Amino acid sequence: MAVFSVSCCILLWLGYLPTALSAARLSGISHQQSQVSNANSLVDVFQVYQPIPNKANGSIGCNRDVLLMDHVFGYSYGKPFIGIYEPPDCDFDTVRINLTVTSRGRQFDRLASMYLGDTEVFRTSTAEPTTNGIVWTYIKEMSQYNTLWKEQQKLIFELGNLIDNTYTGSFNITLTAYFSHNQNVKTADIILPITARKSASNSSSAFTVPSDNTTVLYQFPPTASRAVVSISACGQSEEEFWWSNVLSTDTKSFNSVAGDLYGHSPFREIQLFIDGILAGVVWPFPVIFTGGVAPGFWRPIVGIDAFDLRQPEIDISPFLPLLTDGHDHSFEIRVAGLDTSADGTAVLSDFVGSYWVVTGNIFLYLAKDASYSVTRDTSNDIPSIFAPAPKFTVTRNLVKDQSGKNESLSYSVIAERTFNVSSSDFSWSQVLSYSNFGLINQQGTSQANSQSTIGNISSMRLGNDEESDDITFEYPLVVNTTYGGTDASKEFTIDASMKRGLDIEATGVTGISTYTLTSGASRLHTEQWGRAHYKSITGGNSTSSGDTFDRFESNTEGSSYRRSVRAIDGSVVLDTNSSDVTHPLLVSQSASHSVGRDSIRSILGRGPGLLQN
């Protein structure tokens, strides 16, 4: 163990000691990385998002930088980075982190998570590197976790990576935090993790669903005046492309050509239960990681939210009369799909495929008045809940060719759900709709899915000072893929097109939202579309090229931002914000690039080969 001092801030490192950096050098990390990337021809990959300055303007009395991590993730399965964070010796209310990553060689895209103790505070993923190397920087608002930053924490950063003769790319990561005081909005007083709580054993605390029991127990303080749960959940392995899955009755429809398909339908619902009572749901955004569908889409522009996976929120304030009764209460997160009966009736399933990575956080806001207590119904502290069963309409049609072989499968799922929970002081409601129309033809080698998820969420404080916050969202997705080739030909190809988007509009949020990623009212509209091609030769290289357009518009905290970017075969050919020094235009050295994932199944979720490790 060593003591490491940066700008009056102390960081204790366990098992790894980086070279000491001065505060002046820390403040210039992003600039220096950009210079290095240009000198060594590293390709600058990026997610289009509204820029966040490293340091908030107008800081009052606190302006500190802390190097949290400078680490190389080589062969790192089961070997997360472990460090001890010490808070700076100044009064801060704003925290932002700068994540800068470089990588060279061949490697899968990887999922990564950052924890303060048992609490997950950041989930991200990596881009697939190239032989010459890539670099990216992402700056994230982290003030919503102020109560954790105020105390010493064990910092755990997990990025499970594989190094062997084929997969040679390590991920070199520098993580820096910037602390300032800017009269920020009030954030939670207590944060309780809904996790496996394994930090004591230097491990990640994420649940793996459906195999893990996600239940935790907590007793709330009597002065809790507001409570919000954030949920982080994303599918991996058999569940990475959940939005393209079929009904479980059809998983073997094309197994002689495309292998087994994955089931439980293309619908997923993340459910939060309190004491076994449904408290709210999340209909997830379909994240596409940089190795998915066709890797050529995502160079150098990565997919929407690939570098910062949002955490949707469920306001559980209506449950406070129950939760502040001085007893333990259970919190559980489940993931459900759909199962169908012989007559075609669809119901929520108890299980899904393997697997989802799931955590949650409970953000508690305490009343300033120590004598405060929520309004109680002396006869029953359980809130009034209106939660009719969701409505599902499911169709399927399997067509055979003249020889009797299955030729095509068309299917659709339409879902609607309403949910409302209220107490004397609070009301929270959801109105959700979903549709997915799928077609698999050419005996499983071609697939198209058109999906739409739309929702409205309303949170109200009742009484004399009545106020309400509303969030509306929409996730459109259209993906069309066709693969070809056989083991005998030793060559496989994928041709793909996609159009997808993310729209969020909020009239307000509690504190700083883990979903809108800001405080107050906000609006976001972003969309991506394009075409890509993939080619692999058995025993040789796999390459992918593409043409992707990304349009982004947002307004947060009164500041507007617009940017449109187009990349063809790894080169940015259009950028309306080309003066942005964080993402300079860099021309790639070839029209196609080697890729990490090495099988059709690992890229599409169907077809020959194995899933990603």
Automatic annotation (TrEMBL):
Entry keyword set: Signal
Q: Which InterPro entries match?
A: PNGase_A, PNGaseA_N
Record carries keyword Cell membrane: no
All copies of domain Peptide N-acetyl-beta-D-glucosaminyl asparaginase amidase A N-terminal, residue ranges: 58-372
Which Pfam families does its entry note?
A: PNGase_A_C (PF25156), PNGaseA (PF12222)
* Name the record gives this protein: Peptide N-acetyl-beta-D-glucosaminyl asparaginase amidase A N-terminal domain-containing protein
Q: Where is the signal peptide?
A: 1-23
* TM stretches of this protein: none
